[in-house]
Amino acid sequence: MPAINARYRHTNLVARDWRRLAKFYADVLGCTPRPPERRYAGEWVGRVTAIPGASLEGIHLLLPGGGEGGPTLEIFQYDPEAEAPAPALNRPGFAHLAFAVDDVPAALEAVLAGGGSQHGALHTMAVPGAGEITLVYAADPEGNVIELQQWTAVEKGAGV
Hints:
alpha+beta
């Protein structure tokens, strides 16, 4: 079967407080709000989402590094809101959002100052054929897992 002509557009993140979460991603990780704010309600929303009576609101944030027409992080808040299990890196399905940063420890401090939390130990390792990566898993203020990573090229012959 031939592949369809597809282009990546956005990832949706459902929030408890979409304004607070959008501010975190803009202030800490450099995402840019992409107006307009969205508010959807009506019978059609229930049909499309299979959640009768649902309404939602939120905004798209342009992800850093993707250019003006790049993909966005769509942050929506639903009414009614369903309870969700705590995020886990080893649960099948989407596990985390990854951001390349210039300084992983400084980025982690910014996440913590912005109301996020650390989710694992900071680690640096060689990746044969690719270079060296420094990374740490953290979480945004609502507990969604974020990977902060920095790649460093390793010189040829350096044993990687």
